[in-house]
Amino acid sequence: MTKKVYIHTFGCQMNVHDTEKMYGVLLQSGYQRTESPHAADLIILNTCSIRQKAEQKFYSELGRLKSYKKIRSDIKIAIAGCIAQQEGNNLFKKAPYVDYVFGPQNIQVLRSIAGKRPPYSALEENPDIELHDLPAERDDGIKAWISIMYGCNNFCSYCVVPYTRGRERSRPSENIYAEVSQLAEKGYKEITLLGQNVNSYASDVDFAGLLKKLNGIDGIERIRFVTSHPKDLSLGLIHAIADLPKVCENIHLPLQSGSNAVLMRMNRGYTYEGYVNKIGALKNVIPGISITSDIIAGFPGESDDDHVQTIQALKEICFDGIFAFMFSSRPHTRAAAYENQIPEDIRLQRLSEILKLQDEITLRKNKAIEGSVQQILIEGTSETDKQSLMGKTRTNKVVTILKTNIPKGSLIDVEIVKARKHSLEGIPLS
Ligand code: SAH
Ligand code: SF4
Ligand code: F3S
């Protein structure tokens, strides 16, 4: 009988895409995908370690799996992703019912996982980059994520990623080109290039060169990328984004804090003034660009004044949207050992203030495009309103329109008739 695999994914887009690769490899090796853990012969938890909350979610799920194994002892349990890399063989001690542990740099071991005798782990750092070229099993058909680089060298003092994903390596541009070309042939319209710091992509070409190459692929209509690091965003790249018609007018550029003292202790490699200059260049060179960001509230040693500087920064820059998080102390990181850790109630209070302010700004920014005409790519039925279709603008804003027979994957022009905090309402022009 065909074996079935179920994967539970935690964490970022990179992890979601890694899950697509895991399914891809396992389907090639004869497994079938199931949406029910009860029906699975192999359960993989693809884990995230970025904040304590993500880790807690994983451990409660891991606890649940113990009972599965009691009912069916032949079931195999694998831990993948960033916690797998961080905890390694300790996971076998913490949960003796775990069979396999492999990190994000070793997904290729799934090719022969059925032949491995538990407990088995694969935690090698920086294996050959070509090993990451795995067949992704994507279900969308319109939008696809593509890895262009792995790992991170920045060692921001709060962050686990350099410890879990290893050193930065860029995938050869011809491999990326080949993957995107195949997706275009299958009818994909939008690609999102993935890396922790895409601006420092360095292969036979730099990131601007890569964008230029991919812009030439027929059938692909939109190119997006995450994440950009402010310190590596050059004027040359800003012009490339402006000049290449398929590259969308949208950038996610994490600021983290508006205080230079905090940025310094975060090891971010830029000042607030330097960041604001880049925002100025982006807005000048790319008219209508939308800019989103990440903010950390309550970093160790953050004074009331530092926090006020972040609030000021949000008011000055007016991001289209942000993700904001309470600082979370993480294993191995330098910030975990910093003095003056901020108590949780203050971190929470600062976070709510940030989120409340940004909500007002986001709504205002959305209101500003009421009445404008925007091109949207139809992604299918809206998840929140089954009577509507959902699409995104080039600036990555969600637009809903009343359901019609417009097929998924169409690019249409809509007039924005109403702005809300999290979405816009549009009416198709033709
Ligand atoms: N490579 C990207 C994103 C990494 S993780 C970048 O450099 O911006 C996504 C976001 O999680 C980060 O931008 C940061 O805001 C947040 N984050 C990372 N570690 C954190 C921690 N220890 N506590 C709170 N937030 C954290
Ligand atoms: Fe983490 Fe900084 Fe690397 Fe982003 S750039 S992944 S925040 S270390
Ligand atoms: Fe992503 Fe979480 Fe790892 S955010 S890189 S899965 S720690």
Task: Give a description of the structure.
With 430 residues, the protein is α/β, with parallel strands linked by helices. Among the domains are: 4-122, 3-Layer(aba) Sandwich (Rossmann fold); 373-428, OB fold (Dihydrolipoamide Acetyltransferase, E2P), CATH 2.40.50.140. The chain has twelve helices and 19 strands. It has a six-stranded parallel beta sheet, sandwiched between helices. It has a five-stranded mixed β-barrel with strand order 15-16-17-19-18. A three-stranded parallel beta sheet has the order 7-10-11, with helices on both faces. Helix 11 links the parallel strand 13 and strand 14 (321-326). Helix 7 (207-215) packs parallel to helix 8 (235-243), helix 8 (235-243) packs parallel to helix 10 and helix 11 (304-317) runs parallel beside helix 12 (344-367). The N and C termini lie far apart (52 Å). The mean pLDDT is 96. Bound molecules: S-adenosyl-L-homocysteine, iron/sulfur cluster and FE3-S4 cluster (F3S). Residues 50-51, 158-159, 161, 196-197, 227, 229, 254, 256, 294, 296, 325, 327-328, 330 line the site of S-adenosyl-L-homocysteine.
